[in-house]
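Quick one, tokens below. Sequence please?
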């Protein structure tokens, strides 16, 4: 039976590239995103009757629980969980609305905690189960204008390392991947030529480059509790 991989935020950007690569590797995919039509469109591109799409807002406690119960009941036990669902609202702290703080925390940090919690029991039943959470280089280094966003990503680092310790004895691995600037909808408003000067490799990365690193972490059977930075060297000069 092929491995079952759940990719939250798999309808676009980094999550979509991860879904594509995992499908090419022979996994059965469950693509999760808020908009069910977008998740279904992403699954249609994977060309396989075995793949499924689910509409779920990862920031909503009951929705996550119900979705993962349905996934386990209808698709089986989960081998891989990738948490790529995320939002940004870049602003200086003084200009950040409290409701935006709540939304960022609920989607980027709480959402990841909820999906991990909902998936873990199912993952106990599979060999070589692994989680990859998508953080950010700004969660490691901080960034002016991204105070709240970077805090959610820094929180993911502590969460990932702690969960890795909690579940290592059950042979479930948990790692964090921290991208720099990647070409997706999230960075569509940024001018690459302005930013590239500050990146040692002098360009944005692609979702496919991030996906390959996610795959490495999912398949690296002796790596857990680690942060892998995929940023063209940006962290070196931040
Ligand atoms: P995109 O905006 O391209 O895609 C975001 C994905 O998350 C979509 O599939 C979206 O689907 C889903 N999503 C957003 N909110 C929710 C929610 N509440 N519940 C379920 N799904 C949700 O972003 P990227 O691919 O660029 O980003 C992926 C991850 O990588 C994010 O965590 C981001 O913070 C992180 N990252 C990105 C960087 C970049 O430069 N692009 C750099 C560093 C980190 P839908 O709208 O249908 O819900």
């Amino acid at each position: 039976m092929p491995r079952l991989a759940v990719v939250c935020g798999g309808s676009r950007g980094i999550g979509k590239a991860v879904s594509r690569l995992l499908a090419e590797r022979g996994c059965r995919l469950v693509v999760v995103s808020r908009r069910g039509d977008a998740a279904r469109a992403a699954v249609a591109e994977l060309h396989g009757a075995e793949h499924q799409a689910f509409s779920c807002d990862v920031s909503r406690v009951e929705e996550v629980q119900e979705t993962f119960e349905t996934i386990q009941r209808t698709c089986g036990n989960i081998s891989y969980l990738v948490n790529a669902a995320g939002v940004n609202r870049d602003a200086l702290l003084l200009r950040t609305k409290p409701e935006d703080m709540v939304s960022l925390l609920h989607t980027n940090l709480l959402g990841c905690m909820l999906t991990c919690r909902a998936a873990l029991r199912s993952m106990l039943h599979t060999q070589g189960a692994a989680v990859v959470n998508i953080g950010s280089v700004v969660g490691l280094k901080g960034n002016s204008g991204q105070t709240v966003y970077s805090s959610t990503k820094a929180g993911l680092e502590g969460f990932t390392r702690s969960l890795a310790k909690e579940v290592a004895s059950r042979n479930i691995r948990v790692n964090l991947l921290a991208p720099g600037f990647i070409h997706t909808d999230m960075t569509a408003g940024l001018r690459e030529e302005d930013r590239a000067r500050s990146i040692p490799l002098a360009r944005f990365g692609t979702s496919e480059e991030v996906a390959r690193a996610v795959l490495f972490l999912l398949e690296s059977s002796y790596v857990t509790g680690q942060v892998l930075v995929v940023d063209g060297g940006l962290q070196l000069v931040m």
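The beta strands are 4-8, 28-33, 52-55, 80-83, 130-134, 173-179, 227-230. Residues 131 and 151 are 21 Å apart (CA to CA).
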